[in-house]
Amino acid sequence: QVQLQESGPGLVKPSQTLSLTCTVSGGSITTISYCWSWIRQPPGKGLEWMGAITYSGSTYYSPSLKSRTSISRDTSKNQFTLQLSSVTPEDTAVYYCARIGEAREYDYWGQGTQVTVSS
């Protein structure tokens, strides 16, 4: 059973960089065909796809966030990381990591972590 767990600070100050890590267990992030995503949900709004990193390390970003977003991975720890720079209160959200499986659908999700941007 694949499990994903987000970790990182719950409070970030405006203009700083938000950094979150997703630790994957029960499966390797380098397994062919899988893609690992970051998704967020601001309060009262829908889910927003932020970006993803593939099994081979290629990255893809939402056009609206591309200038501020970076996704990387540590294969030795089976983790992938989100960095979002120059945050504002509008970046306050629950942040999720998730896997896109062979059927090109989200098949595993982390429980989500609340991040609040406030001074």
Question: Would you write up a description of this structure?
Answer:
This protein has 119 residues and is mainly beta. 0% of the residues lie in helices and 51% in strands. The chain is built from no helices and eleven strands. The protein has strands spanning 3-7, 11-12, 18-25, 35-41, 48-54, 59-61, 69-74, 79-84, 93-100, 106-109, 113-117. Strands 2, 4, 5, 6, 9, 10 and 11 form a seven-stranded mixed sheet that branches. The termini are far apart. The model has no long low-confidence stretch (mean pLDDT 97).
Estimate the helix proportion, in percent: under 10%
| Rg of Cα set | 13 Å
Shape: globular
Terminal Cα span:
39 Å
State the secondary-structure class.
mainly beta
Q: Low-confidence spans: pLDDT under 50, at least 5 residues?
A: none
Strand content: over 45%
* Largest sheet entry: 7 strands, mixed
Give, in order, the helices and strands: EEEEEEEEEEE
Mean pLDDT: 97
In short:
This protein is mostly beta strands and 119 residues long.
